[in-house]
Each structure stands twice: as C-alpha cells, then as structure tokens.
Amino acid sequence: MDELIRTIVEPLVDFPEDIKVTQEENERGFTYILSVNKKDMGKVIGKKGRIAGAIRTIVHAAGRAHQQEIQLTIQE
C-alpha cells in the first residue's frame, strides 16, 4: 500500500526524496501516515483539500479490495 501512496504522490511534489510513508496498526485496520517536504504540503493537500481527499479515496478503495480498513493521514 505504501508503494501505491508513493506512486500517487511522487508526480505532485518537487522533493520526492522527502516522501515518507509509515504504517500503524489499530483496532479498525491500518493507518498510513504520509509525510512530505514542507514546501510540497500545499500541492499534496490541494485547493480545499481536494487532492488529499482524492488520495484518501483511492487508498481506502484499494484497502477495501483487500478486505482491509485503511486510513491515510497527511502529516507535516
């Protein structure tokens, strides 16, 4: 799943080497935490959070395809 997140985010950012994806397990499933360079944060979030919402939707749908509950958190 982290490769999927990286594949989606890399073309959006100017500093792809700063992309970090970590995984945490919780009672509902998994939470992936995406961290990018501070200068790229606006590009990943998008206007009114639309890009972030789209990324979360794709990740959630991919998790459902594998019968997993997946959430994505974007962290500075």
UniProtKB/TrEMBL annotation:
SUPFAM superfamilies annotated for this entry? Prokaryotic type KH domain (KH-domain type II)
The protein's matches in PANTHER family, at most eight in alphabetical order, are given as: RNA-BINDING PROTEIN KHPA, UPF0109 PROTEIN SCO5592
What's the main place this protein lives?
A: cytoplasm
Q: Where in the cell is it found?
A: Cytoplasm
In terms of InterPro entries, this protein maps to: KH_dom-like_a/b, KH_sf_prok-type, KhpA
In terms of superkingdom, the source organism counts as: Bacteria
Q: Mind listing the UniProt keywords for this protein, alphabetically?
A: Cell shape, Cell wall biogenesis/degradation, Chaperone, Cytoplasm, RNA-binding
Q: What does the record list as coiled-coil region(s)? A: none
What is stated as this protein's family in its record? Belongs to the KhpA RNA-binding protein family.
User: What is the documented function of this protein?
Assistant: A probable RNA chaperone. Forms a complex with KhpB which binds to cellular RNA and controls its expression. Plays a role in peptidoglycan (PG) homeostasis and cell length regulation.
HAMAP family named in the record: KhpA (MF_00088)
Subunit text: Forms a complex with KhpB.
Q: One Pfam family for this entry, by name?
A: KH_KhpA-B
Protein name listed in UniProt:
RNA-binding protein KhpA
